[in-house]
Amino acid sequence: MVRAPFYDKNGLKKGAWSVEEDNKLRSYIQRFGHWNWQELPKFAGLSRSGKSCRLRWLNYLQPDVKRGNYTEEEELMIIKLHEELGNKWSMIAASLPGRSDNDIKNHWHAHLKKRTKKNPTTSKITLSSEAYLNDADTARKTKTDSSVSCSPSYQVQESSQLPLETSSSKFSYLSFDNAPLSGINWTAKDSLATLETLEQSFSDFWTEPFILDNTYIQNNYPESLADGGFSASQSCYHEGVDSIYEAMQEFENYQKINKKDPYLVN
DNA sequence: AAGTCGCACAACCGCAATCTA
DNA sequence: ATAGATTGCGGTTGTGCGACT
C-alpha cells in the first residue's frame, strides 16, 4: 500500500515508515516537542527529512488522530465545508477533530467527490439523511463500522478553538507524568536518585511503547524552550543513553552555532 | 489459479506563505 | 528591506490488497 523504503542520493530514507522509526519519532516529540522539523530527525536518530517527519507525525502518530471509519456526520460535514471552502483541506480539517487534512483529502477523492457529483445540491443536506448515501457507500459502511467508530456527536468548532495543532508552526510540547525529563530544564545538580530514574528513562527512550500522557500543551510550554533554550545535564550516562547524550551534545553545538545559550533556563 | 482492475491511503513533491537574521 | 530557511498546503503518485473475470 505504501512505497517500499529506499534511500535517495542524499542518504535520506524515503518510503514506508517502520515501527522502529515511528517509535523514535513519537518518543522524541513526546519528550521534546517539535522545536524544529528540519533539525528534528537528526536528534531523533532518523534518516528522514524534516518534512517527512512532520507529515508522519501530523497524519499518523499524533495523539488523538482518528483513522478510517468516517461517520456519516463527518462525511456530510466534509461535503458541506468543501462546498463552502473549496479545497481548503486544512480549514476543513480544523472543523473535524482528530482528522488530518491529508486524510480528509484522501477520503474526499476516494468517496465523497463521486457522491457530490451524483448529488450536487449539498445545501439540502441534513445530518440524518441516510438516503443520501448510495448503495456502494452503505455497503462499505456496513463492512467497516464493525470496528471502532468515532463519536457522532461532534460539532463544528469555532475557529478560535481549533482542536489539534495541525497547522501551527509554533513549538509544541507534551507533558507526561512518568518522565523525569519532562521539564527538560533539569540540571547537573539534580540528585543521583533522579539520574537513576533518568537512566531507566533513557534506556527506554527508543523502544518505549505509546504509554505517555497524550495531553497536548499548546502555548504553554517553557519559555526557555520556545527561545531555543535547552538545558541538560552533562554528567555521565552510560551505554543505553549514549545516543541521547550525543544528540544532546549535538543540540548544544547547534545552539552555539546559532549563537543561543544552550543553558538558558528561566 | 492466474491475471487484471479499481480502491484506499501513505507518502512524496513543488510551491506559497511565513519566519528570522 | 531582503534573502535564506522553515513550515504548511494541496496536488499527485506508488503500491498493497481485495474483487472480479
What keywords describe this structure?
266 residues, Arc Repressor Mutant, subunit A, DNA-binding, two-stranded antiparallel ribbon, 2 domains, elongated, 42% helix, mainly alpha, two-stranded antiparallel sheet
Question: Could you give a short description of this structure?
Answer:
The chain is mostly helical and 266 residues long.
User: In whole angstroms, how far apart are the ends?
Assistant: 47 Å
Poorly predicted ranges: 121-245, 254-266
- Cα-based radius of gyration, to the nearest Å: 22 Å
Number of strands: 4
Beta-strand residue fraction: under 5%
Please summarize the sheet with the most strands.
2 strands, antiparallel
Helix segment tally:
10
Number of domains: 2
Strand order of the biggest β-sheet:
1-2
Description:
The longest helix is centred in the middle third of the chain and has 18 residues, at 101-118. The chain is elongated, with a radius of gyration of 22 Å. It is mostly helical and 266 residues long. It has two domains: 6-63 and 171-257, no CATH class; 72-147, Orthogonal Bundle (Arc Repressor Mutant, subunit A). The relative contact order is 0.12. It is 42% helix and 3% strand. β1 (6-7) and β2 (13-14) form a beta hairpin. The protein has a two-stranded antiparallel ribbon with strand order 1-2. Strands 3-4 form a two-stranded antiparallel ribbon. The chain is built from ten helices and four strands; from the N terminus they run ββαααααααβαβαα. The chain binds a DNA duplex (21 and 21 nucleotides) through residues 1-4, 14-17, 36-38, 50-52, 54-56, 58-60, 68, 87-90, 101-103, 105-107, 109-111, 166-169.
